[in-house]
């Protein structure tokens, strides 16, 4: 038995939730996938999957196997890269989708990446909402918040840090909210994504506090929210990437500093782990490093 191939099959079954979907992704027949899983279970003398008429589910041993299997697969792929001909060059186009603030952070670092890889091209789309990766030809998308699509491969990059802010002019005219229950009395500027137009979520120690809002302005782009806030349009929750310097200079005021907005996971998603091109792996690692460089994104959520 090829243990590495069987581990790769096991991971795909766990990711897709069925033998048939894994077989389709791997270019195998369903019986072949089933045989590989059975052989793997026999090899390790343990059951990895519960099989029933309702579908498949991981056993405790199966759940424990997943991170170890990924390490083995990643190590084998890295070995393949190392032993390949040294003349192999990272080349071609990689299309990525990013929320606007993170896109600005990444854009400042892209020239150094392209200098190291002269034949690599990166096309960046700024987008707050999830994309159809396959339909739109997007190789990697960075999403904020939980990823609900179980068919995608996910790589956690870090966590957001944001501030509730307002301009000095707005605060001088309308005052500061005394707490989250007073935010609804203020003009609010927000994104159109998810449920953000209905409530903002803050952290109070180990608890989360929801503050209902009735926004006066709604945008689907963080840069537009930022500009409207600078112009005195009201309160907004914005990434530290956009507002840290403005808070330091006094151009914006950090509102309710003891009650920070809840942090969201930053996750890179892509359609398939199988035969991920070197150009895509290179950009994926670059995105991970770019997030890690920023201490306000690399730290774990509280």
Automatic annotation (TrEMBL):
<comment type="similarity">
    <text>Belongs to the LysR transcriptional regulatory family.</text>
</comment>
<dbReference type="InterPro" id="IPR000847">
    <property type="entry name" value="LysR_HTH_N"/>
</dbReference>
<dbReference type="InterPro" id="IPR005119">
    <property type="entry name" value="LysR_subst-bd"/>
</dbReference>
<dbReference type="Pfam" id="PF03466">
    <property type="entry name" value="LysR_substrate"/>
</dbReference>
<dbReference type="Pfam" id="PF00126">
    <property type="entry name" value="HTH_1"/>
</dbReference>
<dbReference type="GO" id="GO:0003700">
    <property type="term" value="F:DNA-binding transcription factor activity"/>
</dbReference>
<keyword id="KW-0238">DNA-binding</keyword>
<protein>
    <submittedName>
        <fullName>LysR family transcriptional regulator</fullName>
    </submittedName>
</protein>
<keyword id="KW-0804">Transcription</keyword>
<keyword id="KW-0805">Transcription regulation</keyword>
<feature type="domain" description="HTH lysR-type">
    <location>
        <begin position="1"/>
        <end position="59"/>
    </location>
</feature>
<dbReference type="InterPro" id="IPR058163">
    <property type="entry name" value="LysR-type_TF_proteobact-type"/>
</dbReference>
<dbReference type="GO" id="GO:0003677">
    <property type="term" value="F:DNA binding"/>
</dbReference>
<dbReference type="InterPro" id="IPR036388">
    <property type="entry name" value="WH-like_DNA-bd_sf"/>
</dbReference>
<dbReference type="InterPro" id="IPR036390">
    <property type="entry name" value="WH_DNA-bd_sf"/>
</dbReference>
């Amino acid at each position: 038995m090829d243990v590495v191939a069987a581990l790769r099959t096991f991971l795909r079954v766990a990711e897709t939730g069925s033998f048939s979907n894994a077989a389709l992704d791997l270019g195998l027949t369903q019986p072949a996938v089933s045989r590989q899983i059975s052989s793997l279970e026999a090899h390790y003398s343990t059951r990895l999957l519960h099989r029933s008429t309702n579908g498949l589910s991981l056993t405790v041993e199966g759940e424990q196997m997943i991170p170890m299997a990924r390490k083995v697969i990643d190590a084998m792929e890295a070995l393949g890269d190392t032993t390949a001909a040294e003349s192999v060059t990272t080349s071609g186009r990689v299309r990525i989708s990013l929320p606007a603030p993170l896109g600005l952070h990444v854009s400042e670092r892209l020239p150094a990446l392209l200098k190291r890889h002269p034949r690599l091209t990166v096309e960046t789309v700024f987008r707050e909402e999830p994309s159809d990766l396959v339909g739109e030809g997007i190789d990697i998308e960075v999403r904020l918040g939980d990823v609900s699509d179980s068919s995608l491969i996910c790589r956690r990059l870090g966590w957001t840090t944001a501030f509730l802010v307002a301009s000095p002019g707005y605060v001088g005219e309308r005052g500061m909210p005394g707490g989250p229950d007073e935010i609804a009395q203020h003009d609010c500027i927000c994104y159109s994504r998810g449920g953000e137009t209905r409530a903002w979520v803050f952290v109070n120690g180990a608890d989360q506090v929801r503050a209902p809002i009735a926004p006066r302005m709604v945008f689907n782009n963080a840069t537009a929210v930022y500009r409207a806030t600078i112009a005195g349009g009201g309160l907004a929750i914005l990434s530290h990437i956009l507002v840290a310097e403005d808070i330091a200079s006094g151009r914006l005021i950090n509102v309710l500093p003891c009650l920070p907005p809840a942090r969201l996971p930053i996750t890179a998603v892509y359609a398939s782990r199988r035969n991920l091109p070197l150009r895509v792996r290179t950009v994926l690692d670059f995105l991970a490093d770019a997030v890690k460089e920023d201490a306000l994104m690399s730290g774990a959520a509280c």
